Amino acid sequence: MLYNLLYPLSDQFNPFNVFRYLTFRSGGAVATAWLLSFAMGPKIIAWLRSLQPTGQPIRDDIPESHLAKKGTPTMGGFMMLLAIVVSTLLWADLTNGYVWVALMVTLGFGAVGFVDDFLKLSRRNPKGLPGRFKLAALIAVGLVAAIWLMYLTRTSIGTSLAIPVFKNVLIPLSYAFIPFAVFVMVGASNAVNLTDGLDGLAIGPVMIAAGCFSLIAYLCGNVVFANYLQIHHVPGVGELAVFSATLVGAGLGFLWYNAHPAQVFMGDTGSLSIGGALGVVAVATKHELVLAIVGGLFVVEALSVMIQVFWFKRTGKRIFLMAPIHHHFQKKGWHEQQIVIRFWIISVILALAGLSTLKLR
After folding, report:
1. How many Å apart are CA 180 and CA 188, to the nearest integer?
2. Residue 21: helix, strand or coil by DSSP?
3. Where do the domains of the chain lie?
C-alpha cells in the first residue's frame, strides 16, 4: 500500500523514492511484522487462554515430558497470520499478482488449520479434522494457486521444472505442472506441521527458509542479478521478497512466546499456513527443488513418519523409537532444548547448501 500510495509522489517529494527498492520495503516488512506479532502476543495469548481453559489436547502416545505442557493454549499461529497479512498489505506492491497468490495460499491453508484446531478444542480430541477432509481442502486451495501461477507466469518457464546447478536444464511439465505445484505446496505445509512438536522447533527453520527465499525471490525477479548468477528470471516475482520477509518478522515475534517453556503453540493454524507460504514462494520462483534442500529438516521429519508407518504396517516393528524423528531423540534421552538448537544448526547448514546452488552452475 505504501508503495502504491507514496512512490508515485516521489517526483514531488524525493525521499518517497526509497519505496521503489525491494530491499527497503523488505526491511520495513520484517520490522512491521515483528512489531505486530510481538506487541499483539500478550493480548492474543490471554484471549486464547480465555477460550481454552484446559489448553491444547495432549496426545497419550507422546513423551512424558509433554505432560507438563498441559494447559498451554494453541492457535498462536493467528498472531503470525495477522502480522503477515497486515505487513504484506502495507509494504508490498498490491498490483503484483504473485503477492495475492501467496496471501491466498497462506490464508487458505490457515483457514483449514483453524478448523482443525477448533475441532480439537471443541471435541477435546487431538485428532481434529479427519485427514481426508483436511487433505482435500489443502489440495483445493493449492489447485487454485497453481492455475493462478500458470496464468501469471505465461512463458514456458511457468510450467517447467528448473534443476539446481544445471543452468540450462528446464524440464517441461506442461499441465503436469499443476499437480506438481499442488504437491509442493501441500507437502511443504504438512512437513512443517509434522515438525511442530517441540517448543520453537518449527518456527526457527521456517524463519531460516523464509529468509533464504526472500533473497531468492529478489534475485529471480531482478534481470541483472538473474543473468549474472545464471538463474531463471521470473518477471514480477521479486515482490515475494517482501512477503517472505514478513514470515521472518512474524516468526521472530512469535518465537518470543513460543520459546521453551512455550506460552502458546502455533497449532495447525500456524504450521499449515506458513508451510504453504514457503511452498507457494518456491513454486513461483521456480526453486521447488531448492526448497527440498533449504527445508531439508522438514523433509526428514516427514520422511521419518512415512518410513515408520510403512515399516510398521509391513513388519509390525518400528525403525524409530517414535516418529516424527524429533520424538525419537527425546526417547533417546536428548533434552528438548538440545534437539531444538541442534535442529536449528542443521537448518542453517542446509540453508547455506541451498543458497550455494545459486552460484554453482
Report:
1. 12
2. coil
3. 23-292
Strand ranges inside 117-193, DSSP E: 160-162, 170-172
pLDDT tens string, the chain, 361 residues long: the values are 898 999 888 889 899 999 999 999 999 999 999 999 999 999 999 999 888 776 666 665 566 665 567 778 989 999 999 999 999 999 999 999 999 999 999 999 999 999 999 888 877 666 778 889 999 999 999 999 999 999 998 777 889 999 998 877 889 999 999 999 999 999 999 999 999 989 999 999 999 999 999 999 999 999 999 999 999 999 999 999 999 999 999 999 999 999 999 999 999 999 999 999 999 999 999 999 999 999 999 999 999 999 999 999 999 999 999 999 999 999 999 999 999 999 999 999 999 999 999 988 6
Q: Which residues of 279-289 are buried (b: 16+ CB within 10 A; e: fewer)?
A: bbbbbbbbbbb
For 314, the 3-state DSSP assignment is: helix
Candidates 138, 151, 153, 150; CA nearest to 105 is: 138
Tell me the C-alpha to C-alpha distance, in Å, between residue 58 and each of 42, 54, 120, 182.
23, 10, 10, 31
Torsion of CA 255, 304, 322, 348, to 10 degrees: -30
Question: What nine digits make up the cell of 163?
Answer: 534443476
